[in-house]
Specification:
The chain is mostly helical. It has five helices and no strands.
Length: 108
Amino acid sequence: MKLWTFLFMTTVFWGMAAIFDKLALGKIAPFTGMMVRQFILTGILLLVGVTTGRIGSMASLDTRSIVFFALSGICGGAAGLWTYYHALRLGGASLVVPITATYPLVTV
């Protein structure tokens, strides 16, 4: 049951994010939007990490995990988000979101 709750919540949050992204990109360059989004996310993560004491867990990361998280960040957080924002700015969310949501086919 817990798995399905998180799956549902993820779907709702990502669906809402696409709507907010499309609305925000009206007059903003995709790279600027990425910076704003990442700065806000970084601030939230730092705040939560410091207030919960979880920031110290980063010291226990091994090199392999750091490399894979870095590659994930480059693919998903930088390159993927940049191309997604460009597509979203050029096309309607009703087209861009379903097509980009086929990314699990690449994973498989």
